[in-house]
Amino acid sequence: MDASRELIGDSPELQALLRQANLVARTDATVLIQGESGTGKERLARRIHAHSRRNAAPLITVNCAALPADLIESELFGHRRGAFTGAHEAQQGLIRQADGGTLLLDEIAELPPGAQAKLLRFLESGECQPLGAARPEKVDVRVIAATHQDLNQHVAERRFRADLFYRLFVVPLEMPPLRQRQGDVRRLVEHFRKELASAHGLEPPHFSPELVRWLERWPWPGNVRELKNLVERCVIFMSAQTVRPQDLPDAWLQSPRDERQGSWVIPPDGLCLERLEIDLIRQALERTGGNRSRAARLLGLTRNTLLYRIKKSAISWGHTDHGERQNVVESRQASEHKE
Q1: Which of 84, 104, 164, 246 holds its CA 20 to 30 A away from the CA of 262?
Q2: pLDDT tens for residues 272-328?
């Protein structure tokens, strides 16, 4: 297997998944890979195929979301000449092309109802009937499906067939998001830094320890794909330079969107609003490497408002001497005494 396509990381979360993948690779069981966009679902499918008895045969990848709606059944199952208007020649479908190997159905949730029904029949019988053919053909194909969407929700909303879901849900594998893979960000940064510099014929940049720690704390809503893109930009624009947190333009980072934002719950024993505000401001400053404009955006404030609150609460960030820390403590104690 091409080393550049391997899944990189030593985290317990990833290693547990790879052990499961190695076990299922020895079988012909249908696999459903789920996980957020950019986590590496296709790479996991390629690993399973590469470690299977089918690795000498092709792995055919199908992006279900990219197939033309009016031609999807023809693309998957093939057609005979004259089967429909414009079918001037017979065409072997993608399922037939995967005979003896593996068929990866990426974005399976996007498959329309008609194609879902035909795919279900194929999974049940192992037979593929091209459009216009009098009889089905027996095909030996192992199926791996992948999606970043919640198929259970799609089934509940009747957008995905329940019987097809259970046919696919034989061995479910869940790709962990990058934010849950402890320690893997550092390993991935080093891997991409060298690999991408070599691919572009450039001297790799050096990532400062502060930047690496900052990257390890970033939530990475775009997962490994987002991290790779960021490293590639650094390779191209900062070749042979030392990169620090403040060197990263805002546009290079994808802002995380959490639907749970706004659902704060006050603990039963209450909280100190001033302490909470100070802690959040410090976290924002730490995450942005002290860039106050970017920290203000993280907090939903204007820069002037943030500067006012930093001054009002005597908030320090970074290296402070003992006197500065003592001033902050005394400021807090005075505020609590007034309450």
Answers
A1: 246
A2: 888 888 888 988 888 888 888 888 888 888 888 888 889 888 887 664 433 334 444
Nearest Cα to 220, choosing from 181, 273, 267? 181
Residues forming a β-bridge with 131: 79
Give CA–CA dist 284/302, Å, rounded: 13
Q: What was the pLDDT predicted at 331?
A: 44
Residues 205 and 325 in one domain: no
Short-list 219, 220, 224, 194, CA closest to 207: 194
Residue 38 shares a structural domain with residue 107: yes
Residue 145 inside a domain? The answer is yes
Q: What is the pLDDT of residue 337?
A: 47
Domain of residue 149: give its range: 3-176
Based on the structure, what is the number of domains in the chain? 3
In a domain, 199, yes or no: yes
Residues 7 and 93 in one domain: yes
